[in-house]
Write a structure and sequence with these properties.
By secondary structure, this protein is an all-beta fold. 2% of the residues lie in helices and 46% in strands. The chain contains one helix and 23 strands. The strands form four sheets. The protein has a nine-stranded antiparallel beta sheet, with no helix packed on it. Bound molecules: 6-O-phosphono-beta-D-tagatofuranose. The site of 6-O-phosphono-beta-D-tagatofuranose has 11 residues, from strand 20 and strand 21.
Amino acid sequence: MSDVHLPDGVRLDTGEGGFERLVVEHPVASGEIYLYGAHVGSWSPRGVRPVLWLSPSSPFRDGRAIRGGVPLCFPWFGPARHDASAPAHGFARITPWTLEEANASDDQVTLVLVLDGDRAPSWHGGAWRATYTVAMGQTLRLSFEVQNLGTDALTFEEALHTYYAVSDVRMTSVDGLAGATFLDKAAGSAGQVQGPDPVRFGTEVDRLYVGTRAACTIDDRGWARRIVVEKTSSDDTVVWNPGPERADAMSDIGEGWTSMVCVETANVGDHAVTLPPGARHVMAAEIRVE
Ligand code: TA6
């Protein structure tokens, strides 16, 4: 158990799978964050239906990533290039984090979680520190900082692999990427350019939009709501929905593919971050519902 003082509106309890979780019940918002993976599991501004999708069949087991919410991908995205046996999307999402600070104001609850290099000493000699600040209010602010504590340069990839809840993905589109170049992982092709139309769904969509800092809007016609995702210090955006066939092969998604879409704030591939010794980098996303 953490010895950090918890303000009114925040409690620590045991969630799914026996994992420790911070529960936020505040006049402006409610939500939860698992210490395992510093995983934001839910967030709802007061009076608004849940903004994030969390799979009802998610595993809550050591070594497995929670399916849904906001998996934090770090220090690599997708399969590790240096070691085929290393966990996909990095170890941060399957490692317990430590609560460092918890504050509440009239407008929001702010929780700061840290992951120190000694939790994964084989990577960069453990000479690094990650700090994740989650502010829940009318908006959700996710701020991910990495600090290089070593004497060599530190290179990493990162993504806030956010799963949004939608009425039906087939009645949902994503705006904001017109003109951006993308790598289409589902089709296995690179160098395509998004036309003026928004991204639409129905079959598998797995796209890495490169070199875009634009805000995206998830336009959900079924629930008549728009979710706006603004970001800072992020050069890439990933858009993912597995579609029916791929989802069918994923026990923790299945029919759920119609209820979710991922729009991810990222720095990956050519936009991996390199930090000189002593430097730090902060990538952030700000999410609101209109
Ligand atoms: O962000 C898209 C993606 O990299 C897809 O390729 C898909 O595999 C998805 O993430 C989920 O990955 P996971 O390791 O959580 O099953």
